[in-house]
Amino acid sequence: MKVVCKKNNAFTIIELLVVIAIIGILVAIIMPVASKWIEKSNDSKCLSNLRQIGVALKLYANENNDTIVPAFSSSANPVTWQSRLDPYLGLPANTLRSGRAWQCPRFLKFPGTANRPSYVVNYNLTMFTQPKRFVQLPQGRRFILVMENYNINQDWFNQSTLQGLNATQLAQVFRHPGSSLNTGTSRVLWNDLSISDATFNEVQANRSNLASSLWIYE
Fold this sequence. Notes:
The protein is elongated and about 80 Å long. It has helices spanning 13-63, 81-85, 167-173, 200-204; strands spanning 119-122, 144-148, 156-157, 176-180, 183-190, 195-198.
C-alpha cells in the first residue's frame, strides 16, 4: 500500500512574524513620505487660493476704478472684502467662512478655525472709507496685500497687529515651514500679485518707516 504524504502549505509562526516585520518596515518607510506628500499638497492648495484671490482682487479693481477692495464696510452690502470677491471666485455670496478659496488646509488643523477666514488684507491699503487704488502705490516698492490669519473673527491686519500676538497665535499666522525648525513663514500675496513666504522679521522690517515699510507709505 502506497502512503501519500500531504504537503502542509500553512505558514509557520516564524514566517508570519517575518511577514509582519516586513510590513511594519514598509509602513515605517511609506508613512513619512505620504505625510510629506500631503503637506506639499496642502501648501499647493494654499498657494492656489492666494493666486485665485489675487486674480479676484484685480478683477474687482478693473470694475471699480482700480480700487483695492475695501476690507470692511458696515454701510455697504456685502460688508466684507471676502464677500465682495466671492462672485469673482465663482462662489455664492457670503461664503467666506466655507468657500474653498478662503480656507488654507494648514489653518484648519488648529482648533476652532473651521468658521474663520484663513486670510486677511492689509488694512492700510483697504481702509473702510478710503481704500487705495493700485495706481497710487509707489512704483518700485511692494506692499503686503494679503497674508495669513490666526484664529480670530477679523478680516484685516495692520503693521502693529503681529506685535500683540502670543506664541500660539503667531504659530497660526506663520504656519508654513521656514528655513529652520523654529522659524515658520506666512504666505504673502503682494501688491504686484506675486506670492512668496515671509518670516515674522521679514514682514515686520521697517514696519513704521514710511519710506521702506511693507505696510504703509503715507
